[in-house]
Amino acid sequence: MRNCFDTLDANHFLSHYWQKRPLLIPNGVVTDDLTVRPEVLAGLALEDGIESRIVSSQDGIWQQSRGPFEATDFQVPGPWTLLVQGVDRLLPEVAALRHYVGFLPYWRFDDVMVSFATDGGSVGPHYDRYDVFLVQGEGNRRWKLGPSCDSTTPTITHGELQLLAEFPAQEEYLLTPGDVLYVPPQLAHWGIAEGESMTYSIGFRAPRVADLVARLTDQTLDAVDSNLLLRDPSAMTPALWAGEIRPQDLENVREAVFNTLEALDSGNWFGELLSEQGEPVPSVLPHAESVALAPSAKVFWRRDLEQCHVFANGSISPPLDIAVIPLLSALCEGNVLPVSSKDPDPHLLNFLDEAGALYDPLDVE
Question: What share of the chain in percent tops pLDDT 70?
Fold first, then answer.
């Protein structure tokens, strides 16, 4: 598996396209890497605990239903689309698609959604708040791109679906197997299958700023001395008007707050927040012969001088030696490592195992 689309210069893409404008990447993915069959996708949609939905349209009326489904639910009148979220956590061959965009930070990666559509199938004209690489599998799909949207853009509600009330198409692309279309956040887009069609959507979701502010604030409140009072020796001047909050008062308060946030910022709150989305699995040590990161786990790390802090499923490790970074990076890339390999810090694998972030992919039981 390659680490980047062959025809894409990563630096040029990030400078000119990332979160700015769409980009078509012809033959960006080897079609041999796109192996999910429609019947396999349908089988996943029958299972409990897997997020799936069917979107159909007939005579201008759009409908959406959510799984798990029964086999008879696929007998839908009119064009329809089956979408299954998080297929990368279920099928290793789909998880491997992430390496095509390995130049993007792993913590931004959300999941790979796979969809199957009958001829004319679509989810309607809409926009998303995340970055997505639309990878065409079997069949063809025509994508129409429109203007950038926001919360003021008029929409029409069809049950659970929020579709754009108007769609002034500005660009149009017909994707054939192996083609990739990058769509930045909030750009209107509308994909329509031409014949039966499979699409792999590699999604990158950014954390909400509100969540970042809340987590940093919570960490500061836990660390700050509750008896610490505001000081204003330099800001205090004689008051001229009773009851006034003066500009220098507000400036002093802001400086005190921002200085406190900065002084007590350990930098670990961010990794803990991101990794909380992981789903732990049962422990595999000490019986495993090999280990890899569990597909449902969220594992990140940060370097701090000569120490490394690891975050797994909402837990944070004790400070580890930076010598663990090559091993950590190999695990985050999806590699399988024998437990017998030399661990530069014996606490690393134990921490990941206790956090429910490891599994043995060679265990056939």
Answer: 98
